Amino acid sequence: MSTFDTVVIGAGMSGLTSARMLADAGQRVVVLEGRDRIGGRMHTDRSAGFPVDLGASWIHGIENSPLWDLVHALRIPAIEYTVGSFQVGGRPIENYDGEGRRLDEAATAQWVSDVDLADRLLVEEIAASSSGDTYLDVTERALDRSGLSPDRIDDIREFFRHRVEEQCGAWIGDLDAHGLDEDAIEGDEVIFPRGYDELPRRIADGLDVRLETVVTRVSRSAAGVVVRAGDTEYRADRVIVTVPLGVLKAGTISFDPELPEAVSGPISRLGMGVFNKVFVQFPERFWDEETYVIRALGDAGEHWHSWYDVSAVSGIPTLLTFAAGPFGRRMQDLADAEIVADAVSALHVLYRDAVGEPLAHWVTRWGEDEFSNGSYSHLALGSTHHDHDALAGPVDGVLHFAGEATWGDEPATVGAAFYSGHRAAERILDRPVDLADFAARITAREQTVGR
Ligand SMILES: Cc1cc2nc3c(=O)[nH]c(=O)nc-3n(C[C@H](O)[C@H](O)[C@H](O)COP(=O)(O)OP(=O)(O)OC[C@H]3O[C@@H](n4cnc5c(N)ncnc54)[C@H](O)[C@@H]3O)c2cc1C
For atom 2 of ligand 1, which residue has the closest CA? Predict the structure, then answer.
């Protein structure tokens, strides 16, 4: 039996942040991680010689962002890419109609203004909504009031459905009317040409992280906690559980005594969505040089609707598309080759013979991953914003939770994971932890060991 001040379960962004802060404060900390790698849902595949971010890629808004301040302080290079939040305009987007014809300038302007109008009405409908209203209910009410023609309404309806799938990994009818309230973006968005997992890796450097250590049981008493993984027990004064909401829902970790309703209620009420990525590399670019996103509206985009040009990361023409919500779940049962063929056939509708044979592809299946059981949390019908923060506990003063699902301001993001890890460390230390100091300590440690 090993004894620590704090056991942290999970070596993703939230767990590593809190572990680092507690270790910096002089605590004996161990991080138990089920996978054979750190980073969790920040996962960069470098096997092809360049980084491919299979999990998180974007910081959604770098203004007033302590996460961006950390990235900046660590001098991690970033590329501006301000369309990561399903924007309709703002950056060059190639839009195609339901038959695969490119919208000209006038049609594009009308499309952008149609969505703006519907979004303004939607804000009013959300404010006027009642408990039990879904996001589908409020969007339909907004569309009814828009006065637009049925075919224009159909395109916006499809756009709203896809926006919910991408932002929440959920079907629009399962999301609460307030499910995208916290979706405001301040400033530009960025992605990471060296791979986003550089951030958790640098935070983890020097920590006691035990990989391939799958926790199955957490027991607590007034004296502290005992965490079981395989045949080993780890005793500590307290524990921070940072496993994803999908893992908590699956019940693969048992809690003794059982979790109180204050925490088990949010676990059952909040939703865990599925959002998968498909990267396809091509021999040549067949889209415009300045294009950020290719978007197919109406029938042409029923499944594969948005393609993001991420060629700048590898230097090879590369498009990233997403399969989320019910389609994202169904897709996971297919072989990679089938998925890629289906996705590329959707591009053929837009670009005909200009689409070359794919050179390489990457496909994720986060919904089948036993260590996440989904991609990120959302406000399922029946849950409230309060459920996110209530999930953090603490329970009996010794059992803390952190992770994206525990942060109500901007759940489902790396920022949420970071801030929730920070909150757990502050609660345990019972004092503020300065974020500038946190970053400075990381760089000072790197200088000491010559990195
Ligand atoms: C495809 C995809 C794209 C995304 N894109 C973005 C984006 O562009 N921008 C953004 O901000 N966010 C994005 N996100 C969300 C972001 O990745 C997450 O919110 C964030 O990384 C979560 O960090 P975390 O610490 O809460 O959880 P995790 O990173 O999941 O860490 C939890 C850790 O717990 C471990 N674990 C699970 N069960 C056990 C067990 N029984 N015992 C021990 N360890 C266990 C897991 O292996 C994992 O390492 C994306 C997520 C996905 C899946």
Answer: 55
